[in-house]
């Protein structure tokens, strides 16, 4: 039966590709002709001609992701400083602006296509039992391919950073930088002291929603989890509400759109796209970063840094570049023939991510002649394209993966602290909603597993409630396998190494199930997808063992790897950068991106990355202020 189901699923995928591709082509052509706001030709970034590359710059920023865009824009505010931004990807394609299409860019040319090492404890439903880890290979980085959810984390996260020996990183000090990044456009927040206005990154509500949003909110209300005027980024984080997104006029507002498009034409800022940095050039005697070597086209180039090299390549590429350049654990570098410039055992360690369980699918009966959830073939059609091109509300503005978000404390966390240990995404479609064409492929679920567990409920009204473990105790690490930076490191995610993480996940799944037992959900006959029991038929249905099985099969990264170049005081042997983000034992070298986070924040990581880059830029300005730099002060 499995072979037959798999054949049917594969055949249907093939039949679905044609119409879906036609919609994408129509959309792209229509945007070029009718949506000049998306084309945005006057502000689109243009890379310099490589022959215009200067021999040296004051600052070289490696990586044009969320952090790199901030740094290039902020450092080039001083007209006396020359700044070079090197980005391995190109500019954002037009369709990347459309919120609903974000999964299309996973496992695409705009994605680095990382995956974890195989495991027998998680990602069991995935290809080769590996978790797929998308990372943006495009100007804007992950802010250009993520789901745009604007969550800052909890004040206690940052107070903990300071308590670990990182002065100045407590919430009272970093709130200013969250406000500095932000242009809050949601009505009712005009005078809110937690929010900023006029910053580079605009924040709005998602423009197009399904009828399930109100049902999700009523279910949370019936459990007493809805609080008036809840703002996840304000005074309290606990409760349920529709999330805010990094959106501008309903479309994606990436770090590229927010920071670089307004600054790239400055004469002191040069940007080279499709430039792959191969190595940091370090003087082995002085331990000073002298510049970088990079590949552009078929040629190799070297450029010098007069002041600093700033590594902003992300939590996977930043530690890898350090290691191939001789900065990292001696026991990893020497067997590969890499000369050790600075032994730093913490490089590549302390890896953390928000593990999720994406398989908790529930079908329901709307009792109407229309679907309440999003069924993609019904929504993604020529009519929707025309509505979008004419500027009307359309499915392409939607973010079904989390129409309502919740934060709550399990029995393992004191609720009085308002420091939730689980985040919930309440999504208005499931793996069956698009026939597996995009969602299954993005999660890398095997055809056999999809055919057995989701094919039976395909195109039915359904939703997903996905819990995320907020502060995992498990730690992973990266292991380079070659001095060649183009060869991906081995990613040892080590999800659930600490049993506490699985205990929290099981509680999260049970809370999700309780939401489906509320009166409003039961009036729709919300029912767990019974076919998922096929993964572990030996366990009792809906028991703790069942939820653990679900978590091990449908393990899903939420794209939040952090911590691999840990910020720490000198007393911590696992530290890589100091509280001013300077690489330990080195001169003229900093790491400024999500890799420096000592612990993962309670929420999505893009907003915290923008914040720390803003603060890092100010630190650099402060540290060089005693030099004479024209009229800058």
Automatic annotation (TrEMBL):
Q: Which cofactor does it need?
A: FAD
Keywords, sorted A to Z: FAD, Flavoprotein, Membrane, Transmembrane, Transmembrane helix
Q: Which InterPro entries match?
A: FAD/NAD-bd_sf, GMC_OxRdtase, GMC_OxRdtase_N, GMC_OxRtase_C
Quote the Pfam families the UniProt record gives.
GMC_oxred_C, GMC_oxred_N
Q: Does the keyword Hydrolase apply?
A: no
Transmembrane stretches, start-end: 6-27
- Which annotated residues bind FAD? 138, 277
Q: Which residues form the Glucose-methanol-choline oxidoreductase N-terminal domain?
A: 314-328
Record's superkingdom? Eukaryota
Q: What are the GO MF terms of this UniProt record? A: flavin adenine dinucleotide binding; oxidoreductase activity, acting on CH-OH group of donors
For this chain, the family text in UniProt reads:
Belongs to the GMC oxidoreductase family.
Instruction: Provide the protein name.
Output: Glucose dehydrogenase [FAD, quinone]
List the source organism. Answer: Drosophila rhopaloa
Gene name per UniProt: LOC108048985
